[in-house]
Design a protein that fits this description.
The complex is a heterodimer of chains A (232) and B (107).
Chain A (H helix, E strand, L loop, with lengths): L33 H14 L6 H9 L3 H6 L2 H15 L5 H6 L18 H7 L4 E2 L12 E4 L23 E11 L2 H4 L8 E9 H4 L10 E7 L3 E3 L2
Antiparallel strand pairs in A: 1-3, 2-3, 2-6, 3-4, 4-5
Chain B lengths: L10 H4 L4 H4 L1 H6 L4 H7 L11 E4 L21 H5 L4 H5 L17
Classes of the chains: A alpha+beta (232), B mainly alpha (107).
């Protein structure tokens, strides 16, 4: 993925025209195929090794080649990104993946997620909030302007959680959530750099030129402070 | 509630997200045309009803506190809980009358 100025990344699909949604039915299985469950298990277990963060995993999924991102099913994307993470971290070689052989045992890692601990780990989650390192720049109710996603990157190509549809738009601070780890740096192992996180509320009519619902309809996006500019 | 950038979802509370929540169609359309999306779930809202769409872009997970149906006023906690469905907490459904006095509609 290359982010040119004003370029929307293909994983950033909010607002795209798309087909019909197929709601599930009460009898649908949780996993459509047995291998889906295995990929989920692999991803959770591999994540628990602590070699990369959730932000890095997301970055690896959204930087899969465009044609793969768009044609792969959900768990295929997970498996492809996980495979890349294994290779990047030297846990397996590209040759082992390509030819399906075992290139020798890796030393056992210290951090191993064991089956009896899975439920507790999932229930606990990974906390992204951090001790405040400064004051929040914006207050509840204040009008703010979002930057362009590409102007929030800490490297190129890079990771951001500012969606394109909410770029360069005016919204209002709805909540202040305290300091949170900044995905834009953390995804690239450039530090947690915690900063204030806000819920910013946008009028739908300001986001979508063709909005035809209620004038009070809104979209709320969680934005880190560095995604926002004050309105002077 | 939607996650337009990936598939963030309150797993510890609601379990593995349904396929539609992770689909390109839902991720693309929920923020732009929530009324049309809700209609595909059988929820038709009047134009007078304000809609707020929550895009889960951070590590904060959101659940909807469903609007209480008038006929449930006065019910106890356990009875009320049986009206609450998974979709009513995602925001794509309304509370549903439990069937056969069972555990209630799970979706």
């Amino acid at each position: 993925m290359t982010r040119q100025p004003g370029h929307k990344a293909y994983h950033d699909m909010g607002g795209d025209l798309a087909g019909t949604i197929m709601p599930d039915r009460p009898d649908d299985p949780i996993f459509a195929a047995p291998w889906h469950k295995r990929v989920l298990g692999l991803t959770v277990a591999a994540g628990a090794m602590g070699a990369w963060s959730i932000d890095t995993s997301r970055f690896r999924r959204e930087t899969l080649p465009q044609k793969d991102y768009q044609r792969f099913s959900y768990y295929e994307k997970w498996l492809a990104a996980l495979t890349n993470l294994f290779v990047i971290n030297g846990f397996v070689s590209p040759d082992e993946i390509r030819h399906g052989y075992d290139g020798g045992l890796q030393p056992m890692r210290k951090e191993v997620l064991r089956a009896p601990d899975v439920a507790a780990m999932l229930a606990k989650g990974a906390k992204a909030s951090r001790q405040a390192t400064g004051l929040a720049k914006f207050s509840i109710g204040e009008q703010v302007r979002t930057k362009r996603p590409e102007d929030t990157l800490h490297q190129t190509p890079g990771h951001t959680r500012l969606p394109y549809y909410a770029a360069e738009k005016t919204g209002r601070i709805l909540f202040h959530h305290g300091h949170h780890v900044l995905p834009n740096s953390h995804a690239h192992a450039l530090g947690e750099l915690p900063e204030p996180l806000y819920s910013v509320e946008f009028r739908s009519a300001d986001l979508w030129p063709d909005h035809d619902g209620n004038a009070g309809d809104t979209v709320i996006v969680d934005c880190w402070e560095s995604y926002l500019d004050a309105i002077s | 509630v939607v996650c337009t950038l990936c598939s963030c979802y309150p797993w510890p509370v609601l379990g593995v997200p349904p396929a539609w929540y992770k689909s390109d169609a839902y991720r693309s359309r929920a923020v732009r045309e929530p009324r049309a999306v809700l209609a595909e779930f059988g929820v038709i809202l009047p134009a007078t009803q304000q809609i707020r769409v929550w895009d889960s872009t951070a590590e904060i997970r959101y659940l909807v506190l469903p609007i209480q149906p008038p006929e449930t006023h006065g019910l106890g906690v356990d009875e009320l809980a049986r009206w609450v469905t998974r979709n009513s907490m995602i925001g794509t459904g309304l509370p549903k009358r439990p069937e056969n006095g069972g555990l209630g509609a799970s979706l």
